Amino acid sequence: MSTAGEVRSYRDTFVPYWHPVAYAHELREGPLAARLLETELVLWRTASGVAATQRYCAHRGADLSAGTVTPQGLRCAFHGWTYAQSGSCVRIPSQPQTPVPERARVSRYLAAERHGLIWVCLSPEPAAPLPEWPELADSATVATVPLPRLDWDTSAGRMVEIVLDVAHLSFVHEGTFGNPEQPEVPAYDVEKLPDGLRAQIVYPALAPAVGSAPPRVDRTTLTYEVTFPFTARLTFKPTLFYPHTVYAVASPWSEEKMQCFYFASYHPRIRNFAELFVKSESAILEQDRRVAEGQRPRAHPLDFSGEVPVKADRLPIEYRRALAALRLGRPPDAPALD
Ligand code: FES
User: Is the minimum distance from the CB of 81 to ligand 1 under 6 angstroms?
Assistant: First the structure.
């Protein structure tokens, strides 16, 4: 694939998208530091929703995540300047009779709470809406369980690619989910959507062992759904067990570093699901981490000039093509520049 054309910087490409920066349960009554695309942020709750601004105070650069949330806004711990959700300073306690200078403000960003996550868009005009996952809205029929944030030395694109990679299951996940007896990847189609991709494949996965019995092989239907730029939703439908869905939302700190918010939804009737998921998925992701952090380059390549993709890699190939199109300022479903 050619990457002819002007490639936009990594940051410029992904700034206009919503990215998660924290689990909603992590943001309590106090402010919370966060980071996105080399931008240091502070988050706090207000009566009208979540606020996100630059992390360092306009007065003397103190860390606002050490401040206090008040009814007027976020109060800096150093000299008490208080910032409203708009980013404007509304109070300077050391000179209360003097008008607040125009420059006494911090950059503010769009923030939203959805799907158990705090999302931030660093641009005032998002390029795409937040992902729609209506199944999560009904807490009577769906429960969710999050894993601790994944903090990996790899790019967000590499992280999503490993989630989409079918051929690695039998090798990287031998001993957990992968079936070493079935390395061949059957042919599958990838559906291109305006804002994502979709593919379905049947994989003879290993079902967990019960008691002293060996693991069983179960034909698990894997449905992959990508929302650009860095979200993958993967539904597991075993024949022998209830389905569940995993959400992997990578959030770029830089071109070579990301954190990932990883959680599952499942039917509340499944007993012990949360406990089993945290244990088994943590082991599976640790296997992935070792591979992903070892890949070079760490930055997500724009093409395959340094790699040799094969047909079994079809889904990661289409994903990489879509992200390369975004870097070139083209729609993600634009035809490849082969
Ligand atoms: Fe924040 Fe002075 S540094 S109020």
Answer: yes
> Tokens in use for 312?
């079994």
Cα(67) to centroid of ligand 1, in Å?
A: 10
Task: Tell how far the Cα of 82 is from the centroid of ligand 1, in angstroms.
Answer: 9
Choosing from 54, 79, 82 the residue with most ligand 1 atoms within 8 A of its CB, the one to mutate for a pocket test is: 79
How many angstroms is it from 78 CA to the middle of ligand 1? 5
What is the helix (H) or strand (E) element at residue 43, kind and residue range?
strand 39-46
Nearest CA to ligand 1 atom 4: 79
Assess whether pLDDT exceeds 50 at residue 2: no
Q: Which atom of ligand 1 is nearest to the CA of 92?
A: 4
Q: Which amino acid is at 315?
A: L
Residue 59 Cα, ligand 1 centroid: separation in angstroms?
Answer: 5
Residue 50 gets the label, from left (phi > 0), alpha (psi -120 to 50) or beta, of: beta
Q: pTM of the full predicted structure? A: 0.94
Question: Which residue's CA is the nearest one to ligand 1's atom 3?
Answer: 60
- Reduced to 3 states (helix: H, G, I; strand: E, B; else coil), residue 263 is strand
DSSP for 94-117, written as a single string: TSTTSPPPTT-B--EEEEEEETTE
Count of C-beta atoms within a 10 Å radius of residue 151: 11
In three state form, how does the secondary structure of 194-238 look? CCEEEEEEEEEEEECCCCCCCCEEEEEEEEEEEECCCEEEEEEEC
Which ligand 1 atom lies nearest to the CA of residue 64?
1
Q: How many CB atoms within 10 Å of residue 246?
A: 19
- What would the pLDDT profile of 186-239 be if each residue is shown by its tens digit? 999 999 998 999 999 998 887 766 666 777 788 899 999 999 999 999 999 988
Higher pLDDT, 2 or 54: 54
Percent helix, strand and coil across the chain, each to the nearest 5: 20, 35, 45
User: Model ipTM?
Assistant: 1.00
